[in-house]
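ok so I'm stuck.
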Amino acid sequence: MLGVALSAYGADGHPSGHDTGELVVTRPMPSMPLYFWNDPDGSRYRDAYFGTYPGVWRHGDWMTPTPRGSVIVSGRSDSTLNRHGVRLGSADIYAALDDLPGVLESLVIGAELPDGGYWMPLFVVMEPGRTLTDALRAEITSAIRTRASPRHVPDTIIAVPALPHTRTGKKLEVPVKRLLQGAPPHQVAGREAVDDPAALEYFTRFAPTPTT
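replied:
not stuck anymore, here's the structure
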C-alpha cells in the first residue's frame, strides 16, 4: 500500500535484509487503527501490535523482501510452529488427524518459554465415550509422523474438554499460545469474541508458574 514504511525484522529487532522476517511498519500508516473496543487503557492494543518491537508495529506475518523491491508474504508468524528453526504448518497436523477414530478435534501450538525452551503440545477433544489412552497417543503420533513428518510430532498430547473458537468457528491458536506463555486471559481475547470463554480459560492451567 502506498505510504507504508514496510520492513522485515529479525529476532534482534533489526531489518533482516532479503531474509524472511517479521512484517513491521516503522512509521504511522494510512488507516492504522488507533484503539480496540473495551480496552480503555490501551494495554491490549499496545500488546497486540507494539509488544515485540517497542514503537514499531508488528503485523503478525512473515515477509521476505526481494531484490527488485517487492515482498513475499508467507503467512501468519504468530501461529506458525517454529521448531528448531524449521517452520511447520498446524494445518498439516490437523489434516493427519481428520479421520482418526476417537479424536473429535485438535489444536496444536508452539510456545516460546521464558527459560528459552520451546513447547509444542497437541490438545485433543475426544469423541463421547472415548478416553486418551497410551495406545491412542501412539496412534496419533504414528499418523502425524506418517502423514506429515517426524518434525510435526508434538512434545506431548493432552486431552481437554473443549477447544475455544471465534464466533465464526476458527480455532484460537494464538490466544491459547499466549495463555501458555503466561498472559492473563483478559489480554488475549475479549469474552464476546469467543464461542466458549470457559474453554479458553481452561488453558491457563498449563501456563508456567511465576518464580520469585
